[in-house]
Design a protein that fits this description.
This protein is α+β, with helices and mostly antiparallel strands and about 120 residues long. It is built from three helices and six strands, in the order ααββαββββ. It has one domain (about 5-115): Nuclear Transport Factor 2, Chain: A.
Length: about 120
């Protein structure tokens, strides 16, 4: 399976707004290695189940929110992404950046999200 890293990233991004757990798991399996590790200022989660659980919590705290990639750059097996978090009407709720490492099969191994934690501004 050969897909570009940007396509892999966008599949992963879609999983954050997918509310159906089965569809979300399919997106995660397409875009992430089973040994994936996700970190942000609030959590560190390993594997599909833990990350999917965190995504469910995110969706409860920000219903209808989704991530829109505004810049994607890559080299070797890494990418740096800038993004906006928007509501279901497209209003920007926040901005951030993510750093990622890809495995030999093209799926994500590590994802680190950077953004101001709520209440830190």
């Amino acid at each position: 399976m050969t897909t570009s890293r940007k396509n892999t990233w966008e599949t992963y991004t879609k999983s954050w707004s997918e509310t159906d757990p089965n569809k979300r798991m399919q997106l995660l399996k397409e875009s992430l290695s089973p040994q994936c590790v996700y970190t942000d200022p609030n959590v560190q989660a390993s594997g599909y189940e833990n990350l999917s659980g965190y995504m469910t919590q995110f969706q409860k705290s920000a219903p209808g929110a989704r991530f829109v990639t505004t810049e994607f750059v890559e080299h070797h097996d890494r990418s740096l992404v800038h993004w906006n978090m928007t509501d279901d009407k497209g209003k920007i709720l926040g901005t951030g950046a993510s750093f990622a490492v890809y495995g030999d099969d093209g799926r994500l191994l590590q994802m680190s999200g950077f953004f101001a934690a709520p209440g830190s501004r």
